[in-house]
Every structure is written in structure tokens, then in C-alpha cells.
Amino acid sequence: MKNWRTIALVRTFAWIAALWCCSPIPLGRAAERPRLVVVVSVDQLRYEYLERFRANFAEQGFFRAVHRSGASYVECHHRHAFTLTAPGHAVMLTGCYPAQHGVIDNNWYDRKTKKTVYCVEDPKYPIVGSLGESELKGVSPQSLDAPTVADVLKQSTDGRAKVFGITLKDRAAILMVGQKADGVYWYDSTSGCWVTSRYYRQELPDYLRALNASHPVQNRYAGKTWELLYPASRYRLNYPDESLFEESYEKTGRAFPHRLDVDDEKHLAKQLPATYLGNDFTLEVARMVIEHEALGADDVPDILAVGLSANDYVGHTHGPMSLEVEDMTYRTDQLLGEFVRYLDQRVGQGRWTLMLSADHGVGPVPEHAVTLGLPARRNPLGPLADLSKRLEAHLQKQFGAPPGKLTYVDKLETSQVYLHEEAVGKSAARFRTLQESARDFLRGLPGVAVAVTRAELQSKDEITIVLDESWKSLLAPGTTMEQALRRSFSAEHSGDVLFALLPYQAQSSLRATHGSPWRYDTHVPLLLLGHGVRNGSFDRPVSPAAIAPSIALLLGIDPPAKNEERPASEALVR
Question: Quick one: 232 exposed, middle or buried, by C-beta within 10 A (0-12, 13-18, 19+)?
Fold first, then answer.
């Protein structure tokens, strides 16, 4: 009997020890975890801006606060090929890439409906809160095929943790927080209102309904001007303020000061996102959510995702070397500095952690890049409709006319070609040959760096990709072109041939754009500040996808199911 009791006691202690050792709480007691984790995505924030504009960052701004007491990763890169808003935001809290989370682009072609679909479009869940007609009938995270760390937190706390997302762009807010958020709010530029979807809530909370009813855009921003924050002599001007390299967004002008409309409320609502006031408005709503939802107020940790989308509008309109982008970066630094001081006051010092990154960077304005001696070109492929016809003629010359009214090319987009499998009689071998022929046609075009087929991407065999050595140096550290393309490929949503343009090529009417696998589009900040963060600058190559496992490590929960990245463990106190 004594031996039986001894064995039972030993087994009991072993079982308790096993549970303790397997516990996903690396930071020990719950009291040591932050009560609020804030994830900030600054849309189109190149890492290079942090270096180029460093001398002018304010002492009380965010970036100097990170330098004094936070952590910075100097080689943070997106690791997928097509660096766009939707996949970039989905990466951050899922910890994985489009191949796993399914969001390959802002829009993609649906073979079944023969239509281009928006990444969060979902008519089953109508927009709630707009005082006017919204552009979309409904939205949801239904295209996101991976859970976020916020979803894991909700599940691990039996729903007690609170999760919210706030951005100017619906796709940014929805794809950061995921499926189980308590509230996701974004700015409706057709009405100037903050709205949501019935996927998340049946109606807006009272405080946002009251905000919308007060017509804040008209009453606060009508006639406002965006002036330079500092004297003009302090700026690192790369081309004249009013330059042909820029455009005027919604008639706000190409040069400072940028004046907002006085009388037309609908026009004013569209102008606001392309000024720093769009970020100011976003952070005001973030404060309202923190206060009214009591985020960080109890012992159960909460997550708030905030997207500062105005930087993207400004960058597309004026370009990365513009006075507007420089001033916008200083304004963002100032606004975030004020926001972290607010977190100290409202949530409490030692009770919050903030992680900041960006969904993508941006390439140069091609016309300006040419003046710097770079091999840049706008629209090297010409009109895509014409290219589609040329590709169709090439395929018909090789395979003959397809049966009936079919064509070989179903849809051609900026980085994807969708082919009709039925046009070759549903023969797998002939369909592979069709893909290869389309791939070889694209490879021969000036402006195309690489093209690969669906069959190659679905195979585990190594793909033969020949790149100029100078182009290889523009890829993210530790990432090959093959890896980047594989991470961007979704069997459900991607085309049958994927292709990427040469460096400094822009197939777009926007003055500056992104979407490539090259360093200027992939290199973004990863900054950490607040509770549990070790001060320092780290050079290990990481990705914004590291945010998800870092939050998991900090909060003592499991990382999301499809997470692929290591946490930023060097920067976390354990």
C-alpha cells in the first residue's frame, strides 16, 4: 500500500510538473503581462524614412521614444512577392503569408463568377453606421483562411479579452484582427462616418453613433489647411514642392499649403484621408474605443489594432521623395508620441505594449527615378487589355483555335494570368504545357523579371529562376525569388502564371506604387515599445509576421495555428 501511495504521489507531481512545463506562459505570473497590446500599422511606411528623417524627429515623438527605451529591427522585410495592403495587413497578426492565409491581393479574379472580387467583400454582412450610401454592400473576414493571434486570445480567455480594430481602410482593420473581434471600425469616405459590418455588430456603439451624428468632418475639418510642421529650411527636399512628379489628391493641390473644402461635405470627406488629419481622426477614435470599451482596465489582456492609412494616400499622390511624405512622417511621429503618452495616462505605465510595422513600402516615381539614373519605366507592359490579346494570339498560334467560344486567356492582371483549362480539353499535361507557353511569352517581355507557372509552384521541385546579380541584392535578406513567389501563391485564388516586374518598373497610373518583391517595397520598420520590451537595435532579419508570435509570447498564449515566424524574442524581457 505504501509503495502504491508513493507511486501515485510521484505520478501526481509529475503530472503537475508536466502541465507547468508545457504551459504557454513564458513570462510567469499574469500580473507580469501587459493589459493592452496595441498593434499599429503605418500604411506605406518605408524603413528608409526612419534613417533619412532621423535628425528631425521630435524629442517627445514616438521614434525617439523607441530609440530611448524600445526595440527596433533594422532588417524587417515582408517575405512574400506581391506587397499590397490586404496581404500585408493579414500577415501581421496571423504570422503567415498569402499561401496560408489566402489573401493574395486587394482584389483577385474569381473563376466561378468571372468577376474581380474585393478581398473583404461579403454581401451577407451589410455595412452598419453610414449616413449615406456606402460603396460596398457588405464586408467580412470570410476570405482570411488563417486565425489571428487576436482570435487565439479570445478563445484562450473564453471570450473575456476584448479585441478591436480601427483604420481608415476596411480591409486593413478586418484583416489585422480577424474573425472574433468585438468591434472593427473604419472610415467611410462617401459619408465621412465611422462604420462597421454586421459580421461584427448589429449596430454601432452609442459613442460612435453620436460622433457620426455630429458631422465631425464638416464641423472640425472644413477649410483646414495642411501646413508644414517645421520651417521649410529644416526639410530634406528632394524635388521642388510643386513638381510634375506629383498629383493633386481630390483638388487639394500639389504644393503646401493643402487646403480642404469648406462647403462640400462629401468632397471634404474624400479629401481628409490624404492629409495627416486622417491619422489624427483615426487616433481620436482609437482613444474613444479605449475609454468606452475599458481596454486594458482589468487583468485580462486586450488587443487593439490601429491602422494609419493616410500615409499611403499621401505617398501614392506625391511620391516617397516629396515634401509631403517627409512632413507626413514627422506628423506621424508627433501623433504617435502623443498617443503613447495617452496610453501611460489612461491605461497606466507598465500596463501596455505597442508594436509597429507597415503593410508594405513603396517604389520611386518612375519619372523621377529616371533623373537619378535608375532603369525605371512606367507601364512597361502597355495596356493590359492589349497584352491579353497578344498573349491569346501567341497561344492560338501554338495550340490552334480553342473550341467553341472559349479563349485560352481567361483574365490577365498586373501579376497574374488566369487560363481556361477547358480550352485544352481538361488534359492535365496539355494544361501544364499551356501554362509553360504563357510563362515563356511573359518572360520574353521587356519589364518582366520572372514568371512561373501554377504547376511549378504546386510542385516541391526547385524552380529554375535566373536573376541578374544586381536584382538579387534588392531582395529581402534570406529570401529568394522562388520563396517569395511560393509565399504569394494560393491554389484557390491565384492565377496559372505569376510574374514580377523588373526593379523600378511601375504598371500603374498612381504616381508612386508598390506590389513588388524588391527591397524598396519589402523593407519596413518593426518597432516595439512599452511593457516587456528590452531596449536595443537588432539586425536579425525578421518579418512583420513576427508580430503574431511575439504577442503570443508576451501574453503567454499559443501562436496562431498557421504561424510561420519566430517571435522577436531578442527584444522581449523573459
Answer: exposed
Q: What is the CATH number of the domain that holds 194?
A: 3.40.720.10
Are 35 and 347 in contact, with CB atoms under 8 Å apart?
A: yes
Q: What is the pLDDT of residues 95-142, one digit of tens each?
A: 999 999 999 999 999 999 999 999 999 999 999 998 766 667 899 999
Which long-range contacts does 479-485 make (Cβ < 8 Å, 24+ apart)?
479/77, 479/79, 481/81, 481/449, 481/450, 481/517, 482/452, 483/79, 484/79, 484/80, 484/81, 484/517, 485/81, 485/450, 485/452, 485/457, 485/517
Give the total number of structural domains in the chain.
Answer: 2
Q: Record the cell numbers describing residue 539, joined without a space.
A: 539586425
**HEC-encoded secondary structure of 358-411:** CCCCCCCCHHHHHHCCCCCEECCCCCHHHHHHHHHHHHHHHHCCCCCCCCCEEE
Q: Is 64 exposed, middle or buried (0-12, 13-18, 19+ CB in 10 A)?
A: middle
Residue 20 binned pLDDT confidence (cut-offs 50, 70, 90)? very low
Of the pLDDT bands very low, low, confident and very high (cuts 50, 70, 90), residue 549 is very high
Q: What is the dihedral of CA 167, 171, 505, 451, to 10 degrees?
A: 150
Residue 78, pLDDT above cutoff 80? yes
Question: What cell numbers appear for 165 in the block?
Answer: 480594430
Examine the domain organization and report whether 362 and 386 are in the same domain.
no
Contact in structure between 65 and 333 (CB atoms under 8 Å): no
Enter the DSSP assignment of 518: S
pTM for the predicted model, two decimal places: 0.93
* Residues 349 and 385 reside in one and the same domain: no
Would you state the cell numbers that stand for residue 98, as one nine-digit string?
A: 498569402
Q: Report which DSSP code applies to 84.
A: -
**Residue 426: domain span:** 381-445+448-501
Cell 513564458 sits at which residue?
A: 26
Of 162-176, 312-326, 466-480, which gets the smallest average pLDDT?
A: 466-480
Three-state DSSP state, 304: strand
CA separation for the pair 283, 194 (Å, rounded): 13
CB 151 within 8 A of CB 96: no
Considering the domain architecture, whether residues 290 and 431 belong to the same structural domain is answered as no
pLDDT tens-digit series, residues 266-302: 899 999 999 999 999 999 999 999 999 999 999 999 9
The mean-pLDDT minimum among 157-161, 188-192, 439-443, 565-569 falls in 188-192
Residue-averaged pLDDT of the chain = 93
Instruction: Spell out a b/e string for 427-446, using b for 16 or more CB atoms within 10 Å of the CB, else e.
Output: eeeebbbbbebbbebbeebe
Cis amide prior to 567 (ω within 30 degrees): no
Exposure on the CB side of residue 117, measured as CA atoms within 13 A: 20
Counted residue by residue, the chain has a size of 574
